[in-house]
Amino acid sequence: MSIAGICLFGLATSIDYQRQQTLAEAKQLASEQLSLVRARLERRIQANILVLKALRAEIGFKNQLDPQRLTRMMASFWFLISTLPTLLSHRI
């Protein structure tokens, strides 16, 4: 093997190592971003579950809902639902 061949092999090895490092860093960043999105989604889902539980309790307690109370509860629920597309498209 000539000196030029050895130099080319060394250069190719170095370039490949840098590419692998860059790829590993990109994977780590993507994983961190997905973790943040997942945490936000879980919080929103838990909030929606709480609203639904409150609605269920309200119906069970009174067997009939006050229209104003129902409107407030549903507004809260739909606000949480309507923010999901923004959450999912939010760049971290």
What are its keywords?
mainly alpha, 3 helices
Kindly describe this structure:
It is a single chain. The chain is rod-shaped, with a radius of gyration of 27 Å. The two termini are 49 Å apart. The protein contains 3 helices and no strands. Helix 1 (3-62) runs antiparallel to helix 2. The mean pLDDT is 80. 0% of the residues are buried. The protein has 92 residues and is mostly helical. Helix content is 89%, strand content 0%.
Poorly predicted parts: none
Fraction in helix? over 70%
The shape, in one word, is rod-shaped
Topology as H/E string?
A: HHH
Through-space gap between termini: 49 Å
Percentage of residues in DSSP E strands: under 5%
Mean pLDDT: 80
Number of strands: 0
Oligomer: single chain
Alpha plus pi helix count: 3
Explain the layout of strands and helices.
Layout: H1 3-62, H2 67-82, H3 84-89
Helix pairs in contact: 1-2
Short characterization:
With 92 residues, the chain is an all-alpha fold.
